[in-house]
Structures are given as C-alpha cells and as structure tokens.
Design brief:
By secondary structure, the protein is α/β, with parallel strands linked by helices. About 40% of the residues lie in helices and about 15% in strands. It is built from 26 helices and 17 strands. The strands form 3 sheets. Strands 7-6-8-9-11-10-15 form a 7-stranded mixed β-sheet, sandwiched between helices. The longest helix is centred in the N-terminal third of the chain and has 19 residues, at about 25-40. The chain is globular and about 80 Å long. The relative contact order is 0.08. Mean pLDDT is about 95; it is low at about 200-205 and about 215-225. The structure holds thiamine diphosphate, 1-deoxy-D-xylulose-5-phosphate and magnesium ion. The site of magnesium ion has 6 residues, from loops. The site of 1-deoxy-D-xylulose-5-phosphate (DXP) has 10 residues, from loops.
Length: about 625
C-alpha cells in the first residue's frame, strides 16, 4: 500500500464522510491508483471499476451505507467499493483462493447487501429491499447501480415495469459508459446515445439546479408542470419517465461537484416512486491504456502498470473456444444455413471470429440469454442451423426457453456451451456445474462433451447433421491439450463412446476433459498392479448402453467421472445399471461428480482438488472401493 494522503485513513465510508467535499477528487485519485496497483498483481475486472471511482466515492459520501443499501449490478465494478468498505487491506487477494471475491458477496461484507455476478438483477433486488423497508418503516435508502449493458436484459425491464407502477421510493443509477464487455447492441443503446447527444445543460448550471431542486421543493401544479416540461425538454428522458421513473440526467459521472448535489437531492427527496439518475462515465477512466483499448480492459491478466502490457498465458495451444470458432467458420463457408448467436459475449465465445467472416450471419442479442435461445429456435423453424454459444452458467437463465421453445418442439438448435466445469477466479457464480444435469434430463436432446480439442471438432462436425433435434456440446475454459485437429468431415456416431485402453478389474467411464486425469489415475493404479479400462463416453445422452453394459458385466469396479453435478452422466449410468439389474450381480459402482457445495474461487486445479476430481483422488477412490476402505457414515439426529 502506497503512502496515500487520504486513503491511509479511510477504512470505512464513515471515515470518508468526515472529509470535506473538496478532498473527494483526491480520494478518488488515490482509490484509482490503489485499484490499478492491485489488479496489476491479481488480474481481474479493471475497466468497469475505473469508470465508477467518483461515483463510488460520491455514493458512500452521500448515503449512509450499509444502513442505506447499495446494490451493484454484476458486481464486477466493485473493487473501488471494496477498497472503501473495510476490504482495503485484502484488495490484493482479489479472485484468489481464500481471498476477496471479484463480485459482491453477502458473506464477505455487510456493505454487500446483495450478491451478484450474473447481470441485471439489481433493480429487482433493490425493489424487494425497498418494499421491505417500507413495510417495516425503516426509511433507509435503497440504491441500485446498473450499467448500460445490464439494463438491456429482460430482467431489468421486468423490474422497471414493476417498480414504475409502485409508489415505493428507490434510486436507480444508470451507469452509461456506452460499453458492455464489447460494444453494447440494440435499440436501448441507440436510445441512450440519443439522450447523451441531446444534452444541452452540461454547462447550464441554472437548469441543472432547477432540475435537482424538483426532488425536494413543492411546486404549484402549474409550476410543477412547467418544471416537468423543462426537465424532459432538457433531458429527453421520456422512456424512463413513461415507465414511471423520475428521470434525471444525463450527468457527468466523473464530476463530483455535479454528482454530490444530485445524489443529495435524490436522498432527501420525498418522491414516492422510483428515481433514475443517468450518469455518463468512461470505462477505464484514468488509466491511459484502459481508456484507449477497444475493450477498455474489461478483464485483464496481471499487467505491467507502466507499459500496460498484460502477462500472456504460458501456452500457445489454442483454446477450446477458438477451436470451436474456427471449425464453425469452415462449416459456414460450405453451408449458408449456419448462423451464430451470442448474448453479449462475442469475444468470450469465439463469435467475434465467426463475425469477422460472416457479419450478416452473426447475431449479438445483448445480455439476453432467454431471448437468444428462443430467437435461435425461430431461426431453426425456418431451416437455419443456429449455433448458440453461451457460457454454461449463463444458459441457466434460459432454461425454460431451452425446454419449452427448443426441446418440446425438437428444434435443431445447436448449443455450444463454453466455460463448462470449474472456471477458476470468477468462482462459484460462473462455474458451469449443472448443464449436463439440466440438459440430459430433457427428451429430444443430444448432450456431448469432448475430451480434447480434436474430439470437439468431430462433435461440431456431427452437430451439422443433427437436423431433427437439439444438441449441446460442452467444453471448459482454457486451452486444449495439443491434439492435431481432424478435418471437418470426420464425424462420430451418435451415442457411441470410445475405448481408450482396456484392462480387467476396473472400468473408468469418463466424460469430458477429466479424461486426462483418468489416464494418470490409471497409470497410478497400474503401478500398483491394477489394470483399468478407460472409456471416453462422449455422450451423456444418449448413453452408449451397449458399451456401458458390456463394461459393467466384465469388470469388478466401475466409476464414472465428470465435471458436473449430481443428476448428470453418472446418474444416468447408475439408472441404466439399476434398470438392467446389474447391481444385483455385485458390480461395485461409484460416481465421481462435483460435490453438493458451491466451490469458492481458486485456481481450477485447486478447485478440482476440493471437488475430489483430480487424478490421485480418482485412483484413491478406486483403491478404496477395491479394498473396501470406504466408510458409511451414519448421521444421528
Ligand atoms: C446473465 C449474464 N450474462 C452475461 C454476463 C457477462 N457480463 C459480465 S459484465 C457484462 C457487461 C456489462 O455491461 P455493463 O452493465 O454496461 O457494465 P460495464 O462493464 O460497462 O460497467 C457482461 C455481458 C453476465 N455477467 N451475466
Ligand atoms: C463479469 C463477467 O461475467 C465476465 O466478465 C466474466 O468474468 C468473463 O469470464 P471469462 O474471463 O471466462 O470470459
Ligand atoms: Mg457499460
């Protein structure tokens, strides 16, 4: 920690509130410096936090947090908030094992009244708190801060629809930096841009005072109407006004002399209903490299503060994401029906690569996973081959659309599920733990998981000819293992697994990229004289029943291994074996799955250690089964 003039004495917002308003810009500068310094060592979300430093300082200065509830949407912009709310000394533990979360987390601090990481939840949760506050006569303020990206999602509209009709006071700060992770998309973006270009009052202090005073002053009906007219003429905030919000803005979110009086007015206002304050900020503000970069350093690895250079990953192997994107491009060159869909994650899903060659066949729907899935279903009804590339964790949002709009109608939507399994620094909110489970339970679905990048290509090739039902291919974050890639003509038979090696006593049925750990486990067992068969199951649905039953009959022990929760591949195998009466014949069977806990952020390797899914844990499990050391714990009430 550097020798800061103000920050050294600020641990909590109460310390901040003792300062004069004139010192707050200096405080902001110090917070910004501290944040850059910390993220240069930890990596993480940089641009969004840099853009809200002044806003964070102003909010904690004006409002009585934590009694007043401050809810940050997504939570990736909360590093300045963490520095000012008792977590300064731990800021260099961000996103590491036993360290601070990269998002808001109720268990981490009373200043985080609502946990987040998935977007667009802030207005709903704030309205819930506001209604609770009203019911219990608490009279505290409830403030939600939501970005221009996050406000594009369906949930935000549902919340505004509800809030706008209520007579409950809450404050929504719309943090408009004209950025999502990539450039934001859609009509809302155009609308917000219009509000910004239409502004004329930035220099008109008198107009500004008139607007803000409307919160607290009592106007005669006539004067009120005139004020309303002036406000909307000046600000053009008609959409939000029409939705029932008292709209103010846009204002400069880096100018504390504007922010503080407006926030004070909103705080003291007797307005019964939601207030929206539209602030204009710059993502990456105050760090030249972030300001200039096209992504404004949304998410960075460790970097050199002086040069802005980020540390590259230690391998040149292509990521699964890239392998997917490059393969899809090749198919799209041949087949004009191939289209790609992303929900605001073009870079993360590889859709940016596809978009370069096929801009007209790429659809970025914004942070709108639900809409994206049903939109793809619509494309499928017209004979297109939609590839919906979504992170496993974000597809959770669209489960009903997957069931109702895709599976029931057996539409051939191809789900490309990235970030499956444990992802590391983003932690439990971003873990792709449940997709095998929630998709394999659905009739009409084919669910595949490649064990390496070559298998991924074959599965994409196969998906091209699945034209009568939906399918999903799930793979992890990060790099492949260096396999040579096959041609785009090489397919696999649907529902057929692959024997990797044959042994006698033990059969390991693996699905997905834990296969490498299974191979190491098998070598460890071999060193102890135990021969194992390894099967790459490839399909969680349909199961390769023939192969699984054969293996079950020919081995003493069978285990399944997957990077997924209960209810997935292992559960389906267990059900099959039970149905076929295999257990009656004495097979020793276990499933190795993600445990029934949310695993905290750490390196993926350590997270898999917690999950018990690394090689030594697989071999130990097998040895314990063979030599019956497993104990049955009976929990007494
Ligand atoms: C449901 C969901 N989909 C996608 C994401 C990934 N994501 C994280 S931040 C972000 C952009 C948010 O943009 P905005 O709200 O404008 O915040 P900014 O980063 O610009 O401050 C996206 C798409 C997410 N967190 N949640
Ligand atoms: C905040 C958020 O949801 C994204 O920025 C996410 O952290 C990206 O994860 P990847 O780094 O795996 O693309
Ligand atoms: Mg934004």
């Amino acid at each position: 920690m550097q020798d800061y003039k103000f920050l050294k004495n600020i641990n909590f917002p109460s310390d901040l509130r003792k300062l004069s308003e004139n010192n707050l810009q200096e405080v902001s500068n110090e917070v910004r410096k501290e944040m850059i310094d910390a993220v240069s060592e930890t990596g993480g979300h940089l641009g969004a936090g840099l853009g809200v430093v002044e806003l964070t300082v102003a909010l904690h200065y004006v409002f009585d947090t934590p009694n007043d509830r401050l809810i940050w949407d997504v939570g990736h912009q909360t590093y300045p908030h963490k520095i000012l709310t008792g977590r300064k000394s731990k800021i260099k533990t961000l996103r590491q094992g036993n360290g601070l979360s990269g998002f808001t987390k109720r268990s981490e601090s009373e200043y985080d009244p609502f946990g987040a990481a998935h977007s667009s939840t802030s207005i709903s949760s704030a309205l819930g708190m506001a209604e609770a506050s009203k019911l219990s006569n608490k009279l505290n303020n409830i403030i939600a801060v939501i970005g221009d990206g996050a406000i594009s999602a369906g949930m935000a509209y549902e919340a505004m629809n509800n809030a706008g009709a209520s007579k409950t006071k809450m404050i929504v700060i719309l943090n408009d930096n004209d950025m999502s992770i990539a450039k934001p998309v859609g009509a809302m973006r155009t609308y917000l841009a219009k509000l910004l270009t239409g502004k004329i009052y930035f220099s008109l202090r008198e107009t500004f005072r008139l607007i803000t005073s409307a919160f607290s002053k009592r106007f005669s009906a006539k004067a009120g109407k005139a004020e309303d007219f002036l406000r909307s003429a000046v600000t053009g905030g008609t959409l939000f006004n029409s939705l029932g919000f008292y709209y103010v803005g846009p204002i400069d979110g880096h100018d504390l002399s504007t922010l503080i009086p407006i926030l004070k007015n909103a705080r003291d206002s007797k307005h019964q209903g939601p207030i929206m304050i539209h602030v204009k900020t710059q993502k990456g503000k105050g760090y030249s490299y972030a300001e200039k970069a096209s992504d404004h350093y949304h998410g960075v690895s460790k970097f050199n503060v002086i040069t802005g250079e980020q540390v590259k990953s230690g391998t040149n192997l292509p990521t699964y994401t890239k392998v997917f994107a490059n393969t899809l491009v090749k198919h799209a060159e041949r087949d004009s029906k191939v289209v790609g869909i992303t929900a605001a994650m073009p870079g993360g899903t590889g859709m940016d690569i596809f978009a370069k060659d096929f801009p007209k066949r790429t659809f970025d729907v914004g942070i709108a996973e639900q809409h994206g899935v049903t939109f793809a279903a619509g494309l499928a009804t017209e004979g297109y081959k939609p590839y919906v590339a979504i992170y496993s964790t974000f597809l959770q949002r669209a489960y009903d659309q997957v069931v109702h709009d895709v599976a029931i109608q057996s539409l051939p939507v191809r789900f490309i599920i990235d970030r499956a399994g444990l992802v590391g620094a983003d932690g439990s909110t971003h873990a792709g733990s449940f997709d095998i489970t929630y998709l394999s339970t659905l009739p009409n679905f084919i669910v595949m998981a490649p064990s390496d990048e070559s298998e991924l290509v074959k599965m994409i090739n196969t998906s091209m000819i699945i034209n009568d039902k939906p399918c999903a291919i799930r793979y992890p974050r990060g790099n492949g293992i260096g396999m040579e890639l096959p041609s785009i003509d090489e397919k696999i038979e649907i529902g057929k697994g692959k024997i990797i090696q044959e042994g006698k006593q033990v059969c390991i049925l693996s699905i997905g990229t834990r296969l490498e750990e299974c191979k190491i486990a098998a070598t460890e067992l071999k060193n102890k004289g135990i021969e194992s068969t390894i099967v790459d199951a490839r399909f969680a649905k349909p199961l390769d029943q023939e192969l699984i039953l054969k293996c079950a009959r020919e081995h003493e022990v069978m285990i399944t291994v997957e990077e997924g929760s209960i209810g997935g591949f292992g559960s389906h195998v267990e059900n099959l074996l039970s149905e076929k009466g295999i257990f009656d014949k004495g097979l020793k069977f276990r499933t190795m799955i993600l445990p029934d806990i949310f695993i905290e952020q750490d390196s993926p390797k350590k997270m898999y250690d917690v999950a018990g899914l690394n090689a030594s844990q697989i071999s130990k499990k097998i040895l314990d089964i063979l030599f019956t050391k497993e104990s049955i714990k009976v929990v007494k009430n």
